[in-house]
Write a structure and sequence with these properties.
two-stranded parallel sheet; globular; mainly alpha; COP9 signalosome complex subunit 3
Length: 174
């Protein structure tokens, strides 16, 4: 792994273990160019980081992978990576960078549409909604991705379950 990415992994591990998530987000925002330049070896970073313990670090790597790999090449691998992350990520950490989590969901939704694999994303987006919303009656930006995938795949159960409630608040991404 390149020394700059080793530094990235070390910072993610140390700041995550200390619970300094806001400081970590500042570092990660400054590291997006580093991730974009090293897209060919981001899999090594993902192998080193744990989805639950280092959720913020993994989140930024996945966004970089989807941003730099918009074509459906290796679709099974990308789908598995994002699914595993969304299922196992720490909600406390991803809520600190909610806008980036929402960006991941949006990029992933567009990726699935291009691949023609929308049905695979419906349950994943339903889990994503549950991870980030504060209550059952809160609407999030990820709801739009869930609905888009549901409409494209003609599988409505997950979207209806999330939307068949009285919405009393809308989540802010700020």
């Amino acid at each position: 792994m390149a020394s700059a990415l080793e530094h990235y992994v070390n910072n993610v591990c140390s700041l995550s273990s200390l619970g300094h998530y806001r400081e970590l987000v500042e570092y990660l925002n400054a590291s997006t160019e580093l991730l974009a330049k090293n897209g060919n070896i981001l899999d090594n970073v993902l192998e080193t980081l744990d989805n639950n313990q280092h959720s913020l670090g993994v989140l930024y790597v996945l966004v970089a992978k989807l941003t730099n790999n918009p074509a459906p090449a290796g679709a099974e691998t990308i789908i598995k990576l994002v699914k595993d992350f969304i299922v196992t990520c720490d909600p406390t950490q991803v809520r600190v960078a909610l806008h980036v989590f929402e960006e991941l969901c949006h990029l992933f939704t567009n990726y699935l549409i291009r691949c023609g694999e929308t049905i695979q994303g419906v349950k994943i987006m339903a889990v994503a909604v549950e991870k980030i919303r504060g209550s059952d009656t809160q609407l999030t930006a990820v709801h739009a991705d869930l609905c888009q995938l549901s409409l494209c795949s003609k599988v409505f159960d997950s979207a209806l379950a999330c939307l068949d409630v009285d919405i009393t608040s809308i989540a802010s991404t700020e």
